[in-house]
Amino acid sequence: MAAFNLDFLCIHPFRDGNGRVSRLVLLLQCYQLGYEVGRYISLERLIEENKDRYYETLEQSSQGWHEGKHDPWPYINYVLSMLKLAYREFAERVGEVKAPRGSKTDLVLAAIGRLTDEFTVAQLEQTCHGVSKDMIRRVLREQQSAMMVECQGRGPAARWKRKG
């Protein structure tokens, strides 16, 4: 994505606005590749705050571009450092969000306790946001083995019942 961005800047397709368009394309490529930090931290601002280095690496990497004898790595490393900086800023703003081990299991168990004596997997899915159906089924199987719940029926409409 950084090499594409460098090529775009070296081609310089527009009379004005090439830098802004290249940063917009960079943001779109980030989203497509799963780097969504740009939704929360402005990559445009970070690049602006580091524009001396931006122009320096762009100059280094574009020398010899038309002859195919350029070194893209200074610019690629710059783009990667801006992404790293964005993720670092994001982590500082919201803090590291790490779910403790077993928290999804605890979420499902708490939901089972809150629901009526009979419930379905679909009801658990609605109650346990962010927990996959497979995880819910795994917890139900464990609870079934421990004789805490029993399944009454088969298929998606099967009802589960708490014991005791």
Write out key terms for the chains shown.
164 residues; mainly alpha; Arc Repressor Mutant, subunit A; 2 domains; 3-stranded antiparallel β-sheet; 8 helices
List the helices and strands and how they pair.
Elements: H1 2-11, H2 18-32, H3 43-49, H4 51-62, H5 73-94, H6 103-114, E1 118-120, H7 121-127, H8 133-145, E2 149-152, E3 159-162
Antiparallel strand pairs: 1-3, 2-3
Helix pairs in contact: 1-2, 4-5
Verbal overview:
The protein has 164 residues and is mostly helical. The chain is 60% helix and 7% strand. The chain has helices spanning 2-11, 18-32, 43-49, 51-62, 73-94, 103-114, 121-127, 133-145; strands at residues 118-120, 149-152, 159-162. The protein has a three-stranded antiparallel beta sheet with strand order 1-3-2. Strand 2 and strand 3 form a beta hairpin. Helix 1 packs antiparallel against helix 2 (18-32) and helix 4 runs antiparallel to helix 5. The longest helix is centred in the middle third of the chain and has 22 residues, at 73-94. The mean pLDDT is 91.
Give a summary of the structure in a few sentences:
The chain is mainly alpha-helical and 164 residues long. It has helices at residues 2-11, 18-32, 43-49, 51-62, 73-94, 103-114, 121-127, 133-145, and strands at 118-120, 149-152, 159-162.
Distance between the termini: 58 Å
Nearest-integer average pLDDT: 91
Radius of gyration: 26 Å
Tally of helical runs: 8
Helix and strand pattern: HHHHHHEHHEE
> Into which percentage range does the β-strand content fall?
5-15%
Shape: rod-shaped
Low-confidence stretches: none
- Classification by helices and strands: mainly alpha
Instruction: Indicate the percent of residues in helices.
Output: 55-70%
Number of strands: 3
Q: What is the domain total for the residues?
A: 2
Q: Main β-sheet, in a few words? A: 3 strands, antiparallel
Strand order of the largest sheet: 1-3-2
- Oligomer type: single chain
